[in-house]
Amino acid sequence: MTESIDDLRKFLDESPSPFHAARTAADRLVAAGFVEVADTGDWSELPVDGYVLRDGGLIAWRTPDRVEADLPFRLAGAHTDSPCLRIKPRPDGSSAGWKQLNVEVYGGILNNSWLDRDLGIAGRLTMLDGSHVLVDVGRPIARVPQLAVHLDRGVNDCLKLDPQQHLRPVWGIGQGSVGEFADWIAGEAGCDVPAFWELCLYDVQPAAVLAADASLLASGRLDNLLSCWAAVDALIASQPVDATAMIVLNDHEEVGSSSTTGAGGPLLERVLERHVLARGGSRNDLLRSLATSSCVSADNAHAVHPNYTDRHDSEHHPIVNAGPAIKINSNQRYATSSATAAMFRRACETAGVAHQVFVSRNNMPCGSTIGPITATRLGIDTVDVGVPQLSMHSARELCGTADPPALAAALRATFA
Predict the structure, then answer these.
(1) Total domain count for the chain?
(2) Which of 97, 281, 386, 399 makes an SS bond possible with 285, Cβ 3.0 to 4.6 Å?
(3) Is 384 a member of any domain?
């Protein structure tokens, strides 16, 4: 388990943006012998072990010896993006002698968790000719300073942060000038001044094991890079026999999944269709394949909080280090059915790992994830599962150290 958690920590630290997460996953696949396939290329002959990388999304597969046109797919899905602060196109600002960055809130962040943290900058720069450069400034560059308690005596009773006014980081002193940030980030990346960018601020503190018994893992972006790591690990270790093992790492889940690389987009559907066509199949074969395929949508779950136990149903509250949770919602916020829940339970039992069940309180609506979107687009039987964690959508989150390897083992069993 220690080796697995060290590997997960490395994955987390190497993936400060969705673009880096997809690249990190691709690098691991290449090291395991997988071959990249361009989505603009001819797919008449596909590698047995292959992947498609597009922006912050990735789809990879391992094909068994059987190659019938209507061969089923066994999918594991996760997402590469996490809530954060992102740099606006015109970032340069200043106030009262401080240089500041104009930022946009991405996803449903916990505002206060971004206060007083040492922030680095990572993401993608786009040149005027359309080329891209990945950049990761992994040292403290910016900080969102909190107002001193002496100047806000009621802060401990009620902290209210206006995202526009109170979440602007400082990154120097003096009078900021237009173009200063663009010149600086170009220098850091060793490239020309970019035309545009997609850049995330992130806490530079590395992922760390904590607790006296080393039972907990703290890191940024556990939601949902933990599941991405587990999916990649499971695919590399898989030995499929009767179905194509496939992972899909979508971007933009935290903002609704409606994008070219999101679960609501056409990327996965097109990859599946091109697989069937490459085997000499027809549209009818594709539909037959989808009818017998399945998907495990892996996205972290809310562990019961020791200080807020009333926020969970007492019979359905996930506990850390008790195995991945099967997420169920009768109103279809999760795609799990009784049949797919049983499917994942069988996988856990085959892998020899524990599992648990999460159902939210009736007076506390749950969130959603890529599972219902994937199921709706493709008609594939889907189960939503996830490792329990605390501090979801914080700049730094917390989970157990036993659960990530358990999830990877369960996903390996689904690929068998």
Answers:
(1) 2
(2) 281
(3) yes
154 and 35 in one domain? no
Q: Where are the alpha helices (DSSP H) in 151-266?
A: 163-166, 180-189, 222-237
3-state secondary structure of 296: strand
Q: Which domain, by its residues, includes 7?
A: 2-82+220-415
**149 plus 288 within the same structural domain:** no
Closest CA to 219 of 12, 401, 24: 12
- In this structure, what token pair is assigned to residue 134? 């990945």
The verdict on residue 272 lying in a domain is yes
Q: What is the overall mean pLDDT for the chain?
A: 96
338: enclosing H helix or E strand: helix 338-351
Query: Structure tokens of 56?
Result: 């912050």
Distances (CA, A) of 41 to 37, 165, 190, 397: 7, 47, 30, 40
Residues 91 and 68 in one domain: no
Q: What is the per-residue pLDDT across 204-240, written as a single tens digit (0 to 9) for each?
A: 999 999 999 999 999 999 999 999 999 999 999 999 9
Strand stretches in 335-386, DSSP E: 356-358, 381-386
Q: Same domain, yes or no, for 53 and 102?
A: no
**Three-state SS for 206?**
coil
